[in-house]
Design brief:
255 residues, alpha+beta, Muramoyl-pentapeptide Carboxypeptidase, domain 2, 2 domains, two-stranded antiparallel sheet, 5 helices, binds zinc ion
Length: 255
């Protein structure tokens, strides 16, 4: 009987041990899953933290970025004439004070035109180069309507500046002011400077030496050959009038 009692006691201890062990396992098991979840949650949290750090970084760098220029988006209806790719020279007079208003009208000199104007200018450039070794130099291209207003404010005289209410062909992107340059980039002698307001700038003025007369005939002939119209009083001004566009306010960026 003592032996049986001994075994019963042992069995009880074993049972107790098993119960306690199972209990421990039961406790440990959920905690194991929980650990896994915690790990996962930690990763999520880490992601969140990283994301929030990124967000914070973004927020914190915004004031620094504010001063930087946004990348310029040039609307598709405008083409820029750039010397490097076309060989056409630029001397945008209203971007400086060397113009008849003596005031800077554009913050910087760039040349934008409507696509058909750009296409024809390239053809003229090619034509002049192949035939004479010459090229074009542009003094003015698209003139944003606000710049036309600035021009008018500087010289409010309809004999010299188109009133903003009427609007200039330049503000439609269809007019260019230009001259022809020789193979060294020097202006051909046209008898007067650009924006000279007098009889000598008129197309029908013929009291010039033969070489000047020849240059004046050449510029008019080559421009008209490619569809540009001239105006009677300015040897430098040409426009395309086959297609019309509205006056535009869009202004280009400067660095
Ligand atoms: Zn003009």
């Amino acid at each position: 009987m003592r032996r049986i009692g001994f075994f019963v006691r042992i069995s009880n201890w074993v049972l107790l041990f098993l119960v306690v062990f199972a209990g421990c396992k039961m406790e440990k098991s959920p905690s194991g899953i929980s650990d896994g979840m915690n790990a996962k949650d930690s990763l999520t949290q880490l992601d969140k933290n990283t994301a929030s750090e990124e967000t914070e970084d973004k927020v914190s760098t915004e004031p620094i970025n504010e001063g930087k220029k946004k990348k310029e988006v040039i609307p598709p209806q405008w083409k820029e004439i750039v010397t490097d790719s076309t060989g056409i020279l630029l001397d945008i007079k209203y971007a400086g004070t060397d113009n008849f208003t003596k005031k800077k009208i554009y913050p910087c000199g760039r040349c934008f035109v409507r696509p058909e104007v750009a296409e024809k200018l390239l053809l003229i450039q090619k034509d002049l180069k192949e035939r004479y070794g010459f090229g074009l130099k542009l003094f003015d291209c698209y003139r944003p309507a606000p710049a036309q207003q600035r021009l008018w404010d500087a010289v409010p005289d309809p004999d010299y500046v188109t009133p903003p209410a009427k609007g200039s062909m330049h503000s439609k992107g269809l007019a260019v002011d230009l001259t022809i340059v020789d193979k060294n980039g020097n202006d051909l002698n046209m008898g007067t400077p650009y924006d000279f307001f007098g009889r000598e700038a008129h197309h029908d003025y013929e009291d010039f030496a033969a070489d000047i007369q020849k240059n004046r005939v050449l510029i008019k002939k080559v421009m008209e050959l490619h569809g540009f119209n001239s105006i009677r009083t300015e040897w430098w001004h040409y426009s395309l009038t086959k297609k019309s566009y509205p006056l535009s306010d869009w202004e280009w960026q400067c660095d």
